[in-house]
Every structure is written in structure tokens, then in C-alpha cells.
Amino acid sequence: MQPPVKRRYDASRRRQAAERTRAAILDAARQLFTDRGYAATSMTAIAERAGVALDTVYASVGRKPELARLLIETAISGTGGAVPAEERDYVRAIQAAGDAEAKITIYASAIRAIAARMAPLLATLQPAAPAEPALAALLQEISGRRRANMRRFAADLAAVATLRVSVDEAADIVWATNAPELYQLLVAQCGWTPQHYEQFLADLWRRMLLPG
User: Fold this and answer.
1) Which of 3, 32, 38, 139 is the most exposed place for a label (fewest CB within 10 A)?
2) What is the pTM of this model?
3) What is the pLDDT of residues 51-83, one digit of tens each?
4) Domains within the chain, CATH numbers bracketed
């Protein structure tokens, strides 16, 4: 009698299924946070919207603050997870560009895409932050990270051009003007197209940072 054939464990299929589940949870949370707000959205509601058990939500993404972090990280990276700044395609393209105008053009395009994902998300998270210490700490951390990244961007510009202002002031200008809140004001409230917003950023940074 032949011994039973053992079925091979398909790790890749299981991993893909886990990734689909995680994506469904993130999509459900994003929709519910936008529709109801962060505070009014329960983890049970997210599980129901995603079509999974509540325990699966906790096992896949963690508790609510961890879920908010994942949503922010995926909005920044445009992928299914967090990507360190130095590994993002647009950062590498900026570093490879030979002149400051090209660097600014690349970055304005990247910010347009990021802001379109981040602005509605932050609009739902920020009102809940005062009553949610973990969420407030997360938003502060993300803001600090943005600020540090702007310092690196400004230094990269200064390496190929003589700036009109100091590197620190250039970083402050870029940090303030690429905030998702500005995208929300100009695109969502004033009716600008995303392309107009991108061109505005590029023109603003060229005029304020580069020599005439």
C-alpha cells in the first residue's frame, strides 16, 4: 500500500491571502473613518465592513492606533505598507536629478499624489487626536518625520544650487507648503485641480528658494 502523499505547504498562497485580508481591513477602515469619523468607528464595524472576524482584524493590523498608523504609512508610500523615505522611488529620483529645478518638479509631483491620499485621512484623524493620546502622539511623530525629510530635501537642493534662503528656512517653507491641509483647502474646498496644485507648489518653491 502506497503511503499517503503529503500536500506541500503553499506559503506564498497563504501570504497572498493574508495580504488581501489586510488590504480589505485597511480599505474598510479608511471608508468608515471618512464616513463616520475616527472616534465613532468601532473595530467591530471595521471587521463587519471587511467581511472578517474581529479577532482577524486585531491579528492582522493590531488595535485602533496601529490601524491608523498603517493607514498613514500606506497613504505616504502609495503601497500596501510602510516604505522608508530613502527607499521611495521619488526620493531616489530626486537624489539622482542633476539640478534643483528638476528636483523640485519631481517632488511637487510626488506631493500631489501623497496629499491626495493623506488629506482626507488626516481630516478624519485630527479631530479625534485631542481625546486620543496615542493618536495625538502618532500625528506628532508623522509631522516630525515630515519636517526631518524636508531638511534633507532642502540640503539636497543646496548641494546643487545657491538658495535664496538658508537650508533651515528652505526646509520650513517646503514643510509648511506641502502640508496635506493645504491640498485640502485648495483642491477640496477651492476646486483646484490636482495638476494646478502641483504646478503651484513647483512654481512657489522655485520662486522662493532658487535664485532669479
Assistant:
1) 3
2) 0.85
3) 999 999 999 999 999 999 999 999 998 888 888
4) 11-62 (1.10.10.60), 65-209 (1.10.357)
